[in-house]
Amino acid sequence: MSGILHAATGVAALGCGLMAGVFFAFSAFVMDGLAGLGSTRGMAAMQSINRAASSPTILTALFGTALVCIGLAVWAVAETGQGSGSWLVSGSGVYLVGAIGVTLARNVPMNEALARVDPERPEAAGHWDRYLRRWTVWNHVRAVAALAATVLLTVGLAEA
User: Fold this and answer.
1) C-alpha triplet 103, 29, 138: angle, nearest 5°
2) Res 10: pLDDT
3) Which of 18, 19, 75, 103 has the most CB atoms around its CB within 10 Å?
């Protein structure tokens, strides 16, 4: 494995690990903390968090890691003789499908729907309860996928 590829694999593994930690924090305690605020305050807080989550910092970590993973997967497919290639393709694929795919297909649409709900309206409590359950389940998937990708990429790095 070349020095550049070695560094890119390390960056991808660290990025996946960073995102696994972010997703884990939400699954482990942030969502429970928001639920404990009650529907009006919890929903308003999550709406604020969702707006802040589109910052360049989090978007760079989330999607920059995805770009590096795409590059690693392309390289690994092109270089079929490398022993670490299957680990890189697997790790990249798990992150792209399980973290990025789920984010775009599940969590973001739920966040967009939540943004359209007025927390002060009577029907907001029911929406908030459904959102909490569904969003957290899909966030668990993202956390597990990002952690699995970290492990797979790290094994690929170790085998290089």
Assistant:
1) 25
2) 96
3) 19
CA–CA separation, 50 vs 88, rounded Å?
31
Please state, in angstroms and rounded to a whole number, the distance separating the CA atoms of residues 82 and 88: 10
If you count them, how many residues does the chain have? 160
List, in order, residues 6 or more apart from 32 with CB less than 8 Å away: none
Q: What is the spatial distance between Cα 8 and Cα 91, in angstroms, rounded to a whole number?
A: 13
Q: Do 153 and 1 meet the contact criterion of CB atoms below 8 Å apart?
A: no
Q: By three-state DSSP, how is residue 83 classified? A: coil
Within 10 Å of residue 41's Cβ, how many Cβ atoms? 12
d(CA 131, CA 22): 19
**Across 120-143, average pLDDT:** 96
The span from the first CA to the last CA of the chain, in angstroms, equals 6
Residue 82 per-residue DSSP state: -
Token readout for 30 is 């942030």
Burial of 3 (0-12, 13-18, 19+ CB in 10 A): exposed
**pLDDT tens digit sequence for 58-101:** 999 999 999 999 999 998 888 756 667 899 999 999 999 999 99
Q: What tokens does 48 get? A: 């604020």
